[in-house]
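re: that chain from earlier
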Amino acid sequence: MADERDPGLAGDDLRSGGGVEVGVAGYGASTAVLGQEPPEARGVATARGRALPAADRATAVARRRWRQLSWGFWVATGVVVLWILVALLAGVLPIDNPNNIDFSCLASSSPSGAHLLGCDPAGRDTLARVLYGSRVSLIIGFASIAIGIVVGGVLGLLAGYFRGAIDEVLGVVSNVFLSFPSLVLGLVIVTYIGRSLFDITLVIAIVAWPLLFRVVRAATIESAQRDYVLAAKALGARPSRILRTVLLSDVVPVAITYGLIGVALAIVGEGALSFLGLSVPPPTATWGNMIAEGANSVSSVASSGASLSLLLSPSIAMFSFILAINFMGDRLRSVLDVRQGVI
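^ sequence. v structure.
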């Protein structure tokens, strides 16, 4: 008699039952399909002469990969975490309000004991504006890429798994967005929707989602051809279950690694809009508009210590954060063996 079972329960057979063992424990986890093990798990498949369970093999592989991270990765992580803490705690740090005007600075805006990095031409403390500016710049960077990952990631999963008409339609839409230069597209959208913090975040998310869509789509297409996904289909697992429990865990590391690099590009994009006068309006401080103000100050007056500090301080802050988060993303991509696939 044929074995009649609810196809919706077939996904439970992916890990045990029916003589088929399929381990799905996220990207980098060990998978055993029809008695086969991934090459990366073979080096840790035994301990003291006996085979390890699939969960233990997955843990061993994950530990080995994390050990491959160099000290530079942890230094970069520390820099990123430090700036995130500064952005979160700027309101409780012992610094001036970034919009307060010190009239004594109008006569001499050079660095002093009261103002370590000097003041801008309006008499506002440069150090306070750099630290508070990190809050706005990081909100724009992380929030815009988060929106791009959610939108582009979901659409990329659907297009990469189902292919066919949905893939063609979404591919055409993404190509239309990618056909415009990013800065030009951002300028057009900002002109119509406005320059508030939410508007700038939304503009950069609109520019970023097609790239993240292509990355996630490529990763989904590659993962969908693996044995454990094909086994899940053969066992009758529903597409929603395969997407949620199998493919999602494969593409999340890809999205995160490229998302970290995207955060750096988003902050640079905000800086480019600031130079054109189309970013968050004054008096709100961001690294981008501070660099623009510093450049104007240096070009309009003799290069005094105050004007150079106004230019260099936000530039160094932005450079340190972007360098650190780029290094983090690149190291994670190499350690997790994330490939671009067929983008």
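The chain has two domains: 7-67, 71-335.
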